[in-house]
Amino acid sequence: MAKLIAGVTTSHVPAIGAALDNGKSGEPYWQRVFGGYDFSKKWIAETKPDVVFLVYNDHASAFSLEVIPTFALGCAEEFPIADEGWGPRPVPVVKGHPDLAWHIAQSTILDEFDMTIVNKMEVDHGLTVPLSLMTGQPKEWPFRVIPLCVNVIQYPPPTGHRCYMLGKAIRKAIDSFPQDLRVVIFGTGGMSHQLQGPRAGFINSEFDNRFLDKFVADPVSLTKIPHVDYIREAGSEGIELVMWLIARGALDEQVKQVHRFYTVPASNTAVGHLILENTH
Amino acid sequence: MAEEAYEDIPGTQVFDARRSRAGYWLNMFCMSLMKDENRKAFKANEEKYIDTNFPHMSPDQREAILKRQWNRMLELGGNIYYTSKLGATDGLSFQNLAALMTGSTQEQYAAMMLAGGRSPNGNRSKSEWKDRG
């Protein structure tokens, strides 16, 4: 049977990808960020997942205002790298796992989550920056990836509670998949940041660190945070943190924290990162 | 309709239904700049590109784009993930745009971020920004 081994949460700041792609990762500014992932690269090389279920958001790359799915599940064989205005990132094409993805689509829809099934989708920095942070610059990504693209740009995004419950439904689907697969779930985005307007540059380390604490020990309390509190306390783009709750919902209630990292800033954003293992 | 609680957050335009509807053509214009051929056509003649391809855009939005009034674009329904594509066409990063929108020099803005960013204290409610005019 398929087994969910662990969860990884991380920010997905585009400038991190640009720093890596342009050979700047050794500079002190960026070393402070990349250094927090040295352990993580070793961890994932040892954990050897077959599939990563990756929760992220598109940044007006694959989807525009024409179609705005709340939860879009990537069921394709592969996902090309989007051109975000500077040419596509020089990273490998992302290979999917259609068998497991379709199984998760069917299972979660019958569990009353109205998923959008996507058979053609380009993926942007929201998905590729976490892959780069966790694996460096490989010729091929060392695992298959199932993208789950969540709308967090058009207000309102799904609630934290809805995300957490979807995580539970995804876990149930993974647990019932008959093939032996080792699966890791990524929840990406955040932490506090605001990119827009006169309040841009907003960072709330106190909020972020409390979120990290609660995320491990008491995630249900986080599912009660209303959207307005995210926007006020974590910045208008900090609302992306609801995506982390999908990953947390999929994990066991009790998890083992094997890594935690936090730094300010990467460009405009507070970077937070956790690795949590299921113990059963 | 009662005003949403998020309208009290200073310096912030939440991209809700009202703004998304108002900003549709402005944002779709920005989206068109994802293609290199469109970026070239826009750069060659900005007014003609807008008038030919986005005739439904409001005169205010058109002016805000041509004058690169980044905050005004947001006030008129623009979303930062879209307006940043216009920024990219001009060679500006998210951090470059943030400096422009906050009225800082690039150096001041980068220094503020390195020092831990803009504090939540004094930046949660419009009532705290009254003195800023």
Provide an overview of this structure.
The complex is a heterodimer of chains A (280) and B (133). Chain A contains 10 helices and 10 strands. With 280 residues, chain A is of the alpha/beta class. In chain A, the strands form 2 sheets. Chain A has an 8-stranded mixed β-sheet with strand order 6-3-7-2-8-1-10-9, sandwiched between helices. In chain A, helix 1 crosses helix 5 and helix 6 packs parallel to helix 10. With 133 residues, chain B is an all-alpha fold. Chain B contains 9 helices and no strands. Chain B is globular and about 45 Å long. Chains A and B meet through helix 7 and helix 9 of A and helix 2, helix 7, helix 8 and helix 9 of B.
Write the SSE topology.
The complex is a heterodimer of chains A (280) and B (133).
Chain A: E1 3-10, H1 14-21, H2 28-34, H3 38-47, E2 51-56, E3 71-74, E4 78-79, E5 94-95, H4 98-110, E6 116-118, H5 125-135, E7 144-150, H6 160-175, E8 182-188, H7 205-217, H8 219-222, H9 227-234, H10 242-250, E9 255-266, E10 269-278
Parallel strand pairs in A: 1-8, 2-7, 2-8, 3-6
Antiparallel strand pairs in A: 1-10, 3-7, 4-5, 9-10
Chain B: H1 17-22, H2 24-32, H3 36-44, H4 46-53, H5 59-66, H6 70-75, H7 80-89, H8 94-101, H9 106-114
Mean pLDDT of chain A: 97
Oligomer: heterodimer
Tally of extended strands of chain A?
Answer: 10
Order of helix and strand elements from N to C terminus of chain B: HHHHHHHHH
DSSP strand content of chain B: under 5%
- Spatial strand sequence of the major β-sheet of chain A: 6-3-7-2-8-1-10-9
The number of helices of chain A is 10
The ordered string of helix (H) and strand (E) elements of chain A is: EHHHEEEEHEHEHEHHHHEE
The portion of residues assigned to helices of chain B is 40-55%
- Uncertain ranges of chain B: none
Average of per-residue pLDDT values of chain B: 96
| Number of DSSP helical runs of chain B | 9
